């Protein structure tokens, strides 16, 4: 059985996330997805959606066989437990595959590291772009404390 690990924040799920997971699943039999902990996200703004809800959403996706939260202190701990054959990186994840491969070897892990390409030129395949679109199109009507009809959101 070929085990694949995909990782990410998965805040504001969008088709780019689904593409990444579908392409990752094609590389093996069992897809494990490690969802970043809220407190560990330091390379971009903190997630909007809490980690437990992001985990629940990722776990419900068809390509995902197992979803788990990352470790709060050691990102390699779940990888050591899973012992994957392949670790996939999204096209915009800030990991150098060569550096990651060396870090894995230092822990006696021999997973192949594969970067998954982008989903194409889709406007809303980025959580940042989704937030920007909400601000641009709905910002004035989304005031804190204002009674807003959910249909308007």
Describe the structure.
The chain has 153 residues and is α/β, with parallel strands linked by helices. The chain has one domain (3-152): 3-Layer(aba) Sandwich (Rossmann fold), CATH 3.40.50. 31% of the residues lie in helices and 16% in strands. It has five helices and five strands, in the order E-H-E-H-E-H-E-H-E-H. The protein has helices at residues 15-25, 51-59, 77-82, 97-106, 127-138; strands spanning 3-8, 30-35, 66-69, 86-89, 112-115. It has a five-stranded parallel beta sheet with strand order 3-2-1-4-5, sandwiched between helices. The protein is globular and about 55 Å long. The model is unreliable at 148-153 (pLDDT under 50).
Summarize the structure.
With 153 residues, the protein is α/β, with parallel strands linked by helices. It has 5 helices and 5 strands; from the N terminus they run βαβαβαβαβα. The chain has one domain: Rossmann fold (3-Layer(aba) Sandwich), CATH 3.40.50.620.
Q: Are there runs of 5+ residues with pLDDT below 50, and where?
A: 148-153
What is the H/E order? EHEHEHEHEH
Total count of domains: 1
Shape: globular
Which percent band covers the strand fraction?
15-25%
Radius of gyration: 17 Å
Count of strand segments: 5
Q: Main sheet: which strands, in order across?
A: 3-2-1-4-5
Q: Portion of residues in helices?
A: 25-40%
The name of the CATH topology is Rossmann fold
How many DSSP helices? 5
What is the CATH homologous superfamily assignment?
Answer: HUPs
Mean pLDDT equals 88
In terms of structural class, how would the helical and strand content be classed?
A: alpha/beta
CATH top level class name: Alpha Beta
Task: Describe the largest sheet.
Answer: 5 strands, parallel
Termini gap: 44 Å
CATH architecture, by name, is: 3-Layer(aba) Sandwich
Pathway: Cofactor biosynthesis; FAD biosynthesis; FAD from FMN: step 1/1
Cofactor: a divalent metal cation
EC number: 2.7.7.2
GO biological process, one term: FAD biosynthetic process
């Amino acid at each position: 059985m070929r085990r694949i690990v995909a990782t990410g924040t998965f805040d504001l799920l969008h088709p780019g996330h689904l593409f990444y997971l579908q392409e990752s699943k094609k590389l093996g039999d069992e897809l494990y997805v490690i969802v970043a902990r809220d407190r560990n996200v330091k390379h971009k703004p903190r997630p909007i959606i809490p980690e437990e809800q992001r985990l629940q959403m990722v776990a419900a996706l068809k390509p995902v066989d197992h979803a788990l939260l990352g470790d709060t202190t050691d990102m390699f701990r779940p990888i050591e437990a899973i012992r994957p054959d392949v670790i996939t990186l999204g096209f915009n994840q800030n990991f150098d595959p060569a550096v990651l491969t060396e870090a894995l070897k230092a822990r006696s892990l021999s997973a192949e590291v594969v970067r998954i390409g982008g989903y194409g030129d889709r406007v809303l395949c980025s959580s940042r772009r989704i937030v920007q679109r909400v601000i641009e199109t709905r910002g004035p009507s989304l005031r804190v404390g204002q009674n807003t009809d959910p249909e308007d959101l």
